[in-house]
Amino acid sequence: GAGVSQSPSNKVTEKGKDVELRCDPISGHTALYWYRQSLGQGLEFLIYFQGNSAPDKSGLPSDRFSAERTGGSVSTLTIQRTQQEDSAVYLCASTLTGVTGDTQYFGPGTRLTVL
Amino acid sequence: GDSVTQMEGPVTLSEEAFLTINCTYTATGYPSLFWYVQYPGEGLQLLLKATKADDKGSNKGFEATYRKETTSFHLEKGSVQVSDSAVYFCALSDLTGGGNKLTFGTGTQLKVEL
Known about the structure:
Structural class of chain B: mainly beta
Number of strands of chain B: 12
Helix content of chain B: under 10%
Shape of chain B: globular
Largest interface: A-B, 27 and 25 residues
Order of helices and strands of chain A: EEEEEEEEEE
Shape of chain A: globular
Distance between the termini of chain B: 41 Å
Strand content of chain B: over 45%
Oligomer: heterodimer
Radius of gyration of chain B: 14 Å
Structural class of chain A: mainly beta
Strand content of chain A: over 45%
Number of helices of chain A: 0
């Protein structure tokens, strides 16, 4: 079956603009995660959705970052007033359940460049 | 908080050499441990995992044993191939830390030469 998909694959934006990144998880997966991968910080957790529960936003670096998951499926990560330090690869992953140890399947990522 | 420490890279080996990439962790609970691999130009994919102490994860000739007494999960392979060249990430998830979110090490780049 289809894996996790993300769009766009690349995004170049100017400092101060807003961007939206999209993630389509594997069908039937109840949990969805956002991470980012940057040269300076490595791989960092951003936010986690599990079913209808309130999301775990503990990894969001600032209030410019927000995410939503509509209908328990597709998720959108929004970065407002982008800064150059937001440049990174943003990765989405999904799991069948949210149980610790459940395998996370990653999408190909969106490479964001803020000029 | 939770953390993962893995050896700095790059690691350069000749084909058929033995590989060890060290990984140690700190966690408040009883974590599950993972090795993910990122091949050039590709996304992260799970290599192997272990969910409790003394479990051994294995895949594609790679192995790692969950050692609670030494808080380690070292990755080993007896004979590497050029196709194993990639970046390897050690990671943990800890329910005590909240859900199934992953805490990653910094990654170790492996280069295998003929």
